[in-house]
Amino acid sequence: MSESNKEIKVQPPEKFTGLKFDGPKESSVGKAAIGSAMGQMAKYMKPADAIKLSLKINQKGGFDCPGCAWPDPDDDRSSIGEYCENGIKAIAEEAQKKALTSEFFSKYSVQEISELSDFEMGKTGRLTEPMFLDEGSSHYKSISWTEAFQLIARELNQLNSPDEALFYTSGRTSNEAAYLYQLFVRAYGTNNLPDCSNMCHESSGVALSETVGIGKGSVTLQDIHEAEVLIIMGQNPGTNHPRMLSAIEKCKVNGGKVISVNPLPEAGLIKYTDPQSPKRMLTNGIKITDLFLPIKINGDVAFLKALMYELHKMDIDQGGDLIDYDFIEKHTNGYEDFIKAISQIDYMACLKQCGLEAKDVRAAAKMIARKEKIIVCWAMGLTQHENGVDNIKEVVNLLLMKGAIGKPGAGTCPVRGHSNVQGDRTMGIWEAPKDSFLDKLDEVHGIKSPRAHGLAVVPAINAMHEGKAKVFFAMGGNFLSATPDTDFTAKALQNCNLTVHVSTKLNRSHVVHGKKALILPCLGRTDKDIQNGQEQFVSCENSMGVVQSSQGVLSPPSKHLLSEVRIVAELAKATLKNSKIDWEGLASNYDNIRAAIEKVIPGFEQYNEKVRKPGGFYLPNGAREGKFNTTSGKAEFTVIDLPKHELAEDEFVMMTIRSHDQYNTTIYGLNDRYRGIYNERRVVMMNEEDMRDKGFKKADVVNLTSHFNGVKRRANQFIVLPYPIPRTNVATYFPEANALVPIDSFSRKSMTPASKMVRIKIEKGE
Ligand SMILES: Nc1nc2c(c(=O)[nH]1)N[C@H]1C(S)=C(S)[C@@H](COP(=O)(O)OP(=O)(O)OC[C@H]3O[C@@H](n4cnc5c(=O)[nH]c(N)nc54)[C@H](O)[C@@H]3O)O[C@H]1N2
Ligand SMILES: Nc1nc2c(c(=O)[nH]1)N[C@H]1C(S)=C(S)[C@@H](COP(=O)(O)OP(=O)(O)OC[C@H]3O[C@@H](n4cnc5c(=O)[nH]c(N)nc54)[C@H](O)[C@@H]3O)O[C@H]1N2
Ligand SMILES: [Mo]
């Protein structure tokens, strides 16, 4: 095929794969899940490797599952591995026996590779050699590691300012690699460290820091077990955090109740069958949700306001012992203004915006009225909105009203995504570091870190687009497909002098490249990492602030792979000519990196010793102990405005979500089993009445457009499916619909792209 006049496909190809649809399921996990997980392992891995891995997943002394950041039980771990179906899929994807060698790249041009779907790209196997794409070339060619590092160093050192370079991180990077990476980036001279967190839980971090003094959640796994009420908002644990379901089950067995707030009746929320409990498998599962509230997309502030209004009213009617006035008095600021605003809300406007009935809101109020052990869990359904930070602050308002934070069984639970996204931030992967952190870093390493804040993801894309940033370096991830506004971001990346990706697997960011491009293949979580003849381990921090070791068990798929730590060290040696930092010493024994972390970051005292203890150690967490490290020393109530939701007459609100067979931009398979959607990803889930109004029939083909600030964006060729979703709301999968997410629609305070609320129009296609 001649590629000269063909364009690179920056969006996933508009090809249909053969839809089957039988509607949403009630229950999650169970036998089908085990079958699916084992099938995945058997298909892509050697049997001996599969057995070795399944015994070591999330075990003390094993490796941390790269699937999600849900914590492992402190004790009492299942002997066949603390695993879940989707964790297994993540592992099988990484630990593939298939190797992607330079032959593939000489056979297929970059343009030809771009014609593959994301699913097909994932099936090409593990990257095994460093690859280089020269300016004007059509094919990647192999390059030696030394030449690759020299090339990057040359490009970095000829920039007018270090701020013309960007250093992205995805959240799988270990503490050790992340620490070394940010140290290199700051020694080089910039704080341009955008990361996946900017698109993920940044809204939680900002809101929680301002209100309760720590940008992380306050609860432990034990708290979940002990809670009297769990409120799960904007999260789909059955697919994205399946191990959370066993914690919820324990809570329920202890008498806890669950309120689920979600536009979709997600299977894992409704019912759950524990694969490790034969009894549950026989009895066909446990009911998870006691009260399901099918909220409209972005109706959460409105719902929480109505809920707090009801609570306040009940408190007055019932003698004033439903709100924790004692806690409010001692530990909080701003209650009077807050409760005044709540008592004056336009209740009907709130109901209209959240799409719920007064009786539903009252039922929720009754469930929490006499309880104080309340935990709110949330994920992307709350954070990825223009008012994402406000959503979380409103959650905090509710917990503070009930005194439900800083005590057992109560608190905040932002459920993190990538397995070490929280640890990366703790290690200093942040474009807006505190001076106190940089002061310490400089003191310990003898460098002079820049103090000016760097660029988060959205401003980083804009900087590349405007030609102000010229070198893009990514430690993992798939920047093109994970970020909003795919066509805009593609142009931004294509504007760069050099794009570099440290990766385990091929992805679309490798084919939408700068003038020159490099792919640097690295070891994954499951691979053995040997430096200087010694086997190394790394460490990760989970969603609840526990730091644990992780050690791979498999032989790497190629002898050419380097660890992320080694890649950073070699890059630093090549780039920073007079560096006083002993990069070789740090990379040759990771204990030396941990010893440095111990000196710089609070909470890591005796790191090397504590991380070797089975189960690891907890980091300090003020909010967990009821100490609020805000400027006032108290937890802060906030008065939140009701978001504006006007839609033009023919507009819909679209959320972009994950299917059951994907890990972010990695597509393991084409099924979304719990939603009853098989063998097709280009779908739009839509309310049946809306379909009737539009004259759509099931499986009609449609095109989607968004019209934000006068710019028209388009994603063509989707199939309409009737689905139980509130009216005027629709759902599509990420990354297929990312082209519609406007680059300038993001949370005002956290800059998180508003990928859960995109205003779109839907027209019949062919
Ligand atoms: N298997 C698997 N596991 C993963 C991932 C994966 O892709 N695959 N990704 C990892 C990562 S990085 C992350 S961040 C997490 C993501 O975990 P989730 O946040 O669970 O992922 P999403 O699919 O984005 O689901 C968002 C949920 O919020 C609901 N929702 C959308 N908008 C709203 C709203 O306005 N209000 C409310 N109340 N609900 C809303 C949707 O219906 C959906 O159920 O999972 C992590 N774990
Ligand atoms: N529309 C829309 N967009 C979204 C979201 C959404 O809900 N809707 N969610 C957002 C969220 S929450 C997130 S976190 C981001 C995710 O954004 P990213 O983290 O950038 O994306 P991933 O798809 O997780 O990255 C997958 C790639 O990482 C590489 N990789 C895997 N393991 C390793 C490893 O151990 N080391 C290295 N170096 N590379 C590795 C592989 O090459 C793989 O192709 O996407 C965001 N984008
Ligand atoms: Mo995420």
Overview of this protein structure:
The protein is an alpha/beta fold. The protein has three domains: 3-16 and 651-764, Beta Barrel (Barwin-like endoglucanases); 47-65 and 95-197 and 430-612, Rossmann fold (3-Layer(aba) Sandwich); 202-414, Dimethylsulfoxide Reductase, domain 2 (3-Layer(aba) Sandwich). The chain is built from 31 helices and 33 strands. Strand 26 and strand 27 form a beta hairpin. Helix 8 packs parallel to helix 27. The structure holds ligand MGD (2 copies) and molybdenum atom. One ligand MGD binds next to helix 25 and strand 17.
What's the structural blueprint in terms of helices and strands?
Elements: E1 20-21, E2 27-29, H1 30-44, H2 47-56, H3 85-94, E3 99-100, H4 102-107, H5 110-114, H6 118-122, E4 126-127, E5 131-133, E6 141-142, H7 145-157, E7 165-169, H8 175-188, H9 202-212, H10 221-226, E8 229-233, H11 237-240, H12 244-253, E9 257-261, H13 267-270, E10 271-273, H14 278-283, E11 286-287, E12 291-293, H15 300-317, H16 325-331, E13 332-333, H17 335-343, H18 347-354, H19 358-369, E14 374-378, H20 380-383, H21 388-401, E15 411-414, H22 421-426, H23 435-445, H24 457-465, E16 471-475, H25 479-482, H26 486-494, E17 498-503, E18 516-521, E19 530-531, E20 534-535, E21 538-541, E22 546-550, H27 564-575, H28 583-588, H29 590-600, H30 607-610, E23 617-618, E24 635-636, E25 652-657, E26 662-663, E27 666-667, E28 677-678, E29 683-686, H31 688-694, E30 701-708, E31 711-722, E32 729-733, E33 758-764
Parallel strand pairs: 2-10, 3-4, 7-16, 8-9, 8-14, 9-12, 13-24, 14-15, 16-17, 17-18, 25-32, 29-31
Antiparallel strand pairs: 1-28, 5-6, 5-18, 10-11, 19-20, 21-22, 22-23, 25-33, 26-27, 29-32, 30-31, 30-33
The protein binds ligand MGD (2 copies) and molybdenum atom.
The site of molybdenum atom has 4 residues, from loops.
